[in-house]
Amino acid sequence: MKRSKSIRLVLIGSVAAGAVTACGPGDPAKAALSSSAVYTNNFHVPGVGYYHAPFRAWYPLPYNHFDATTQRYFYGGQWGATPLQNITNISSPTPEVVNVAQAQRTDVVRRSGFGSSSRNFHTWS
What global pTM score does this model have? Predict the structure, then answer.
């Protein structure tokens, strides 16, 4: 009798923990991008790239990424002989950059119901 009661408590606890986790705030990296939010260097968005704070935009490679083959550093869409030293390590992207980045994301699943039928309502007489 005691054994089944403890098993039931464990199962109920597992279900409750799963329910609480599912109701949580979620992954901040999956939140909608915004020009009013601030992002740090190398904030990664799947399908978009890495944020470069001094340039207020996302790029395919991390900020100051070093390419061992060419012996150069990547920042702001260009390659340099030395890493860019800049005091800006946090900034807000422009609204235009946010719109492009939001459209390129691959980590957000857009659900719209049953095809196009859920968006249209017709009354036939």
Answer: 0.64
